[in-house]
Amino acid sequence: MADKYEIRLCGYGGQGIILAGFIIGQAATVYEHRHAVFTQDYGPEARGGACRADVIISGDPVLYPYVDTPAVLVAMSQEAYGKYIPRVRKDTLVIYDEDLVKPDLDAKGRMLSMPARKIALAIGRIAVANVVMLGFFTAATKALSTDAVKQSILTAVPKATGKLNMSAFEEGYAAAMKLGAGR
Amino acid sequence: MSSNGQVSGEFFLSGDEACAEGALAAGCRFFAGYPITPATEIAEHMSERLPEVGGTYIQMEDELASMAAVLGAAWGGAKAMTATSGPGFSLMMENIGLGVMLETPCVVVDIQRAGPSTGLPTLTGQGDMMQARWGSHGPYSIIALSPSSPQEIFDLTIKAFNLSEKYRVPVLLMSEEAIGHMYEKVMIPPWEKIEVYPRRKPKVPPQEYLPFVPDDDMVPPMAIAGEGFKFHVTGLTHDERGYPVMTPEAQDKLVRRLVDKIEKNRADIIEVEENGIDGAEVVVCSYGISARVSAIAIEKARASGIRVGLLRLITAWPFPTERVREVARNIKTFIVPEINYGQMVFEVERAAAGRAETVLVPHMGGAVHDPQTILDAIKQAVK
Question: How far apart are CA B182 and CA A2, in angstroms?
Answer without folding.
Answer: 22
